[in-house]
Amino acid sequence: MLEYLESLRLVDHHCHGVLGEDLGRTAFEAMLTEAETAGPPGVSMFDTQVGFALRRWCPPVLGLDAHAEPEEYLARRAELGAAEVNRRFLAAAGLDALCVDTGHTPRAILEPPGLGRLAGARAHEIVRLESVAERVAADGVEAAGSPARCGPGSTPRTPWGPSRSPPTGPGWSCRARGRRTRRSAGAAGRLMRAAESGDDPPRVCDEILHRFLVWCAVDAGLPVQFHVGYGDADADLRRGDPLLLIELLRAMDPVPAMLLHNYPFHRNAGYLAQVLPNVHVDAGLATHNLGHRSPALIAELLELAPFGKVLYSSDAFGLAELYHLGALLFRRGLAGFLAGGAEDGAWTARDAERVAGLVASGNARRVYGLE
Ligand SMILES: [Zn+2]
Known about the structure:
The protein contains 15 helices and seven strands. By secondary structure, the chain is an alpha/beta fold. It has a domain at 2-7 and 125-309 and 321-368: TIM Barrel, CATH 3.20.20.140. The protein has a seven-stranded parallel β-sheet, sandwiched between helices. β5 (224-228), α10 (246-252) and β6 form a beta-alpha-beta unit. The longest helix has 24 residues, at 321-344. The radius of gyration is 21 Å and the shape is globular. The protein starts with a helix and ends with a helix.
């Protein structure tokens, strides 16, 4: 089964760019955690599930033995240089297509076409809704435009406004939850005032505006990605359970809702994928962070979620290693799950291969309309 999965090229339906510069140990370790910085003195981020997974699987791609020590690994990485390291790991991921979320990339990072060339895959852009609103606010100040341009009732009711051409990507991403309200015009006004006051660039951080943007995207009819559960350290995980989104997800139907990451609420996400026709799920970010435990995560995601609604994503960011680790651990976890079922007689080997094809790329192709 693993061999079969290794023969399949994946669609990574949610990922970010990689850093184009060489990294010292502290900077490298900081990219191995969702915390703002690497661990305190005496605590290494290599002593984690993702750290051990990296030392197990990544050194051979750079010509070292598996389990190379961190210092040896980082020395080899520096010797090859970031460009070569990025090329090797993106190629090793075995991707057919990638959907790159270009929002929230404060440091210089490769744009989708560059990533696609490195990966030997087609790259599509996922447009971050908040980024569009921030651009509109900044442009609006310049053009002395009105906040109503992205308020309810403007025509067309889209966040990019009548003078912009719509983004051409296959989908949107957003960090929002809730419903469109009349207060959204007021929230847009606040964003415009922030832009005017020289808050450069203005940042969308307003629940009402997030909700409004989701509905703009729903009106446009493209799949909307929601960052759910485990992720940035500044997100409130107590409010990260996707069950809190159920009314919005129901109201969005038939527009596809793509629940990203989901850990540790991945079973709840699987439930939503079962009961709501438009909901799809993945276990991005958590797959590589759980390392040796990721097969359990993948099996739990597949408890309730229909197999036709589970997608692959790495949610890789910064380190090219994470593209490779995400893909490798996902293939191994899914292969173990499907092979185990076939051995138990729960399904046939042929069924297992068909399901592998759906999860690896077929579901993403269908939902995003990728060719
Ligand atoms: Zn992401």
